[in-house]
Amino acid sequence: MQETPAKILLVDDDPGIRLLIQFGLTRAGYQVTEASNGLEALECFETAKPDLMLIDVSMPELDGFETVAAIRRREGGEMIPLVMVTGSDDNESVTKAFHAGATDFITKPINLPILTQRVRYALASAVREQRLRRIHLEQQSACQLAKLGFWRLWIETGQLQWSLDAATLLGRSAAMPTSVAALIEEARPDQRQRLRQAFDQAGTRAAGLDLEIELARTGNACIIKLQSSPQIEDGVIVGAFQDVTALRAFEDQTLYLVEHDELTNLPNHRLFSRLLADRLERDQHAEARTGMLVIDIDRLHRINEAFGPAQGDAVIVTLANRLRQLLPSNSLLCRLESDSFGMAIPMESTDLAKLQAQLLSQLILSLQINGREVYIDCSMGLAIYPDDGQEAASLIQAAQAAERETNRDQSRRFIQFSEIREARAEGRVILETDLRRALEKQEFFLVYQPQQCLATQRIEGVEALLRWNHAERGIVSPVDFIPILEETGLIHEVGDWILEEAVRQAVDWLQQGLNLRMSVNLAAAQVENPQLINRLCALVKAYQLPPENLERSPRAPRCRCRNRPCSICENTSSVVSASRSMISARAIHRCPICCNFRWIP
Predict the structure, then answer these.
(1) How does pLDDT run across 462-495, given as a tens digit for each residue?
(2) Cα distance from N-terminal residue to C-terminal residue, the chain
(3) Going by C-beta distance under 8 Å and a sequence separation of 6 or more, which residues neighbour residue 600?
(4) Is the peptide bond before 386 cis (omega within 30 degrees of 0)?
(5) Which fold has domain 7-140?
(6) How many whole angstroms separate alpha carbon 334 and alpha carbon 269?
(7) Where are the domains of the chain?
(8) N or C, which end of the chain is more exposed by having fewer CB within 10 Å?
(9) What digits encode the pLDDT tens for the residues 78-135?
């Protein structure tokens, strides 16, 4: 019988991102439903009944954090995996995501093979938690139907009498203790004082009994729950008992499974972070150093796609066993993510060079899959406390960043974060110097991303995107230079050039018969500039561009409040007046809090 594909609700306000993720997940065999914002997602959650939700952080109406919190409050939303998609992997965003109730998070740009693996891992974990929840409910029902034993206590003599089947119910070969003193003697030493006080209070009508104690028995121990009411009749207290040994063992097992990876039995990310935080706190007092090592299986998705998930799981188990053998003493090992492991090692007692050599030589896995020998490589990143991070989360992120650097430098499989930190600092200074000359050397240029109306399938507009063609480095990613433009204040000069170039191009297309709406991204510093309105009006007039052909990029939230409370910032909007002759009897509508604006009639 064919399994029903898992249902995934994809929530993102960017149709391009939705199309990309929808394609990848559908190809992987999942059934995908889409929502363009948080409010729509809440409605789809009730109707689609998804098995997992992918939620973007930055959305209008209701952002990702608020959407996750709202889902968790709804019936049926307590256990569903909620994976957040964010453009940043800073510690504050990660902490906020988990506090809101997120199960996991993944950063942009989206890597489809990794995303599908994270989705598969999250769905498998959800199935496991639902199974544990069901078993727990069944165990509770069984406990309610279990037979109870009874006991009587004569207060004056301290004599205890038990129901005839008491020893059988508790699995004891010896007879039950016949006095309170004998019962206390059988209790665990650290519980005796508490048990003595409880019986003393029960004998004075101060309170009834309600406690658990652990009693020794041949070859094992049992945990019994003792209960009684405060009522005493004829100097006798009557109470009930129950063997809760199996229940407590089940609870311990449930707690273990929640904090451990089911496939490898290693601590998961949550438990490892707590253990690492405890170790770093001890290291701080002892002025010790800890190394955080991240080991990632290179391109595990190829094994899953070629041979199936079962063989991919076999690779993970093999690596886990290998790491256990290489684990230095007094170290921590965990499965961080679906295809990566984390290892915290004490630097004082570890020969780092020797460990690195062992890892590089022994983590080339050779497996027999379907009669074929398959080799799997691993890449590793190392961060050291306190140099590279002083908290567990930041130290793990530093090690992960070092491991990701191996993707850029294919010749190396082991990189320390200190190398990246030094290279980043030096490269940033050089990049800032080159940026100051890029505008006068005409190295900036714009590319235009089409905006298609899904209803009509027509291209109705374009979004102007800044690119930098460095004379020596070639095309530089906007991720690398846009933050520097904003920090140095160069964004004003470059942003002004972007506006004029975008307007000029829009007019040029209009003269060729292409009536396209031009969207332009604006930095916060530009929006806060009081001269922005005047500059826009001057450009519209100078190039004779119809005002409705120019707008702020729809990637940013667009204010539609029109003198009503803004749905984004919940503040009252304002309309900034401008010359009617200049903008054809239109005005610029601008929200004073979220600073979004557009031309309106």
Answers:
(1) 999 999 998 887 888 888 788 888 878 888 888 9
(2) 60
(3) 562, 575, 586, 587, 588, 589
(4) yes
(5) Rossmann fold (3.40.50)
(6) 7
(7) 7-140, 146-250, 262-418, 427-600
(8) N
(9) 888 898 887 766 677 777 878 888 888 887 788 888 888 888 888 888 888 878 777 7
